[in-house]
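Hello, quick one for you while I still have it in my head. I'm working through a protein record and want to make sense of it properly. Would you mind checking whether the tokens look sensible for this chain? I owe you a coffee for this, so here goes:
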Amino acid sequence: MYQKKLSIALFLYAVFISGQAMAYDGETAQRGINTCPHEYWNQPYVMSNGTVIDDPNVLNRTMDEEFGTGTQEITHCLKKRKNAKVVVSINGAHPSNKAGVVQTDRARFLSNIEYMRENYEDLHGMKMGKEVKVVAVANSSGALLMTTHHPAWMRDKTDVNDPDCPMKPVEGKTCFNPFRHLVERAQEIGVKFYLCQTASRVIGIKKAFKIEGVEYVPGGHIAVADLQMLGYALIDL
């Protein structure tokens, strides 16, 4: 009796393994031939050198036409998911170019927020804030991006020696965060922002000068680790 039960169990296990292998092989075989949606391909974009690409003849090219024959075949799209979760760790205010030069005219992560939206929503059909949750935690100098205004944003070249940039609107002073609209745009499309209190203490960010809707966490990196343990995939910037 024992041997008969063991034989049945082994048979069922073999069937299960075989089924799993068939499913995997089928998925693998289909990955290369499934056509990725690429509606976002016809959206204007900006090159790293600042050139705006908006020519319809360029934007409407297929993947193979743009990147070379066979590109479509080896391009794999995400499957639509309902509970995807991403945490972005913003560890600085500005990105650097390929030469390592800090690009003060761009905001780290925020300058690319529309690309993230286009990829999730236009390419994969996943609504940000619903099918995919995106949380951003601002650490270090990245905390400045969560402010309405701060002395660090002063760009008044006619008065560069003035050590004071009042933390209130002052005519003629450019103490305002030039990237505030990007934070607010990201909030509109479903991104949740958290501000590191440790960084706020060091930089001198008060609640009154924080962008509305941004919430606090005591420590940014600890919060990122906590979110990872809750199943959020990390994008470390």
In short: Residues 85 and 133 are 5 Å apart (CA to CA). The chain has seven helices and seven strands.
